[in-house]
Design a protein that fits this description.
Helices cover 36% and strands 12% of the residues. The protein has an 8-stranded parallel beta sheet. With 369 residues, the chain is an alpha/beta fold. Keywords: Lyase. This is Amidohydrolase. Pfam families: Amidohydro_2.
Length: 369
């Protein structure tokens, strides 16, 4: 993971592609621990200094495994003026946005106020993160759009935050994480979906999260690589829960975006759900159609990490099932497993599908057309 992608920041300032793209998974970071304080009431500043945060699990400063690379990020992504990777707008412009011709960049902040047991503090931190995204990022570069971060374990306060931000052109989606206290279809999260549907905003479900549960269905693994491949397991559980709890049936205009967990598993999950639903549908009469229909109509997928089978035809078969209009390109900048835009698609893709993949789908989903 200690990969040096470019020899120097200066080398990145030269455009490498003319293809306009949307990058649907960019992770901005705070330069300092107290950078959110201007957006927090004195009460919460005092609370953080005296009590800190009471999380559902430890290691809130990153995924629950140590990394050889700070912030799970590229070595060459440290800003020249100092601070962690992803904390400098000017360096992000120079290293990512300008050379890659990014026309739309969707911000997905991590390590926010999600996963904190004090729900009032969680809501305050999430609201502060949203103000910070406007002040530091989206108001300074119109290519960037923010995700509304919400205190997801308190559905009512999360819905209030969504409604407060609804209509603000700085925001294009609501951001949840895949690991939560309960599976995402549970009723405690329904106010979030209702508010998002009302606002016409997609709900992005990003890998990771801090729900206090083991990160695999069978307990805590030994290695980081198990966590990396385990993201797809977690997203499958979340998606099955959303379908079988009836979220998609109840909120038919709701759009979900599965972020950073791959998509090659989607057809097999849908096939299994359809088969079991045919036999056990009497248990879930609120699920009125085969699960695959909800998934194909209401779910989009970001591409990083993108499956890379030996035969490109295998990849194309999966995408054909999902739909070329359902894929959103993402780099995961500045993280170590960043996808280079010019190299991610194999040969043999039509020009229409290529344009939709890199830009058109995202612009349509996020209402940028």
């Amino acid at each position: 993971m200690n990969i040096q992608f470019r020899e120097s920041p200066e080398a990145a300032s030269t455009p490498t592609t003319k293809t306009a793209i949307a990058d649907c998974d960019i992770h901005p970071a705070r330069a300092t621990r107290t950078e959110l304080y201007p957006y927090l009431a004195k009460r919460w500043q005092h609370h953080l200094e005296v009590y800190g945060v009471h999380a559902y699990q430890g290691m809130m400063e990153g995924p629950p495994y140590p990394k050889a690379q700070p912030n799970a990020s590229r070595r060459d992504a440290y800003p020249p003026e100092g601070g962690p990777q992803g904390s400098s707008l000017s360096f992000m412009q120079k290293q990512l946005l300008d050379p890659n011709n990014v026309q739309l960049g969707v911000l997905n902040p991590l390590n926010t106020g999600q996963g904190i047991r004090n729900h009032e503090l969680s809501a305050a931190l999430c609201s502060a993160i949203n103000d910070w995204q406007i002040d530091k990022w989206t108001s300074k570069d119109k290519r960037l759009k923010a995700s509304i971060v919400v205190g997801n374990e308190d559905g009512l306060s999360a819905a209030a935050e969504i409604r407060e931000r609804a209509g603000d052109k700085n925001f294009v989606q609501v951001l949840l994480l895949s690991r939560n206290v309960e599976p995402l279809g549970q009723r405690r999260y329904w106010p979030i979906y209702q508010a998002a549907e009302e606002a016409g905003l997609p709900v992005g479900v990003h890998a990771f999260g801090f729900g206090g549960n083991p990160i695999t269905p069978s307990g805590w693994p030994s290695y980081y690589i198990e966590e990396m491949v385990g993201h797809s397991q977690c997203q499958q559980s979340a998606l099955a829960s959303l379908v079988l709890e009836g979220v998609f049936e109840r909120f038919p205009k709701l759009k979900m975006v599965m972020i950073e967990a791959g998509f090659g598993w989607a057809p097999s999950l849908a096939w299994r759900l359809d088969k079991v639903w045919q036999r056990l549908r009497s248990e879930v009469p609120h699920v009125k159609r085969p699960p695959s229909e909800y998934i194909r109509e209401q779910v989009w997928w970001t591409t990083q990490p993108m499956e890379d089978p030996e035969r490109r035809e295998d990849l194309f078969d999966v995408i054909k099932w999902i739909g070329w209009d359902r894929l959103l390109f993402a780099t995961d900048y500045p993280h170590w497993d960043y996808d280079e835009p010019s190299r991610v698609l194999p040969a043999g893709v039509s020009e229409d599908n290529r344009e939709a993949f890199y830009l058109g789908n995202a612009r349509k989903l996020y209402g940028m057309t």
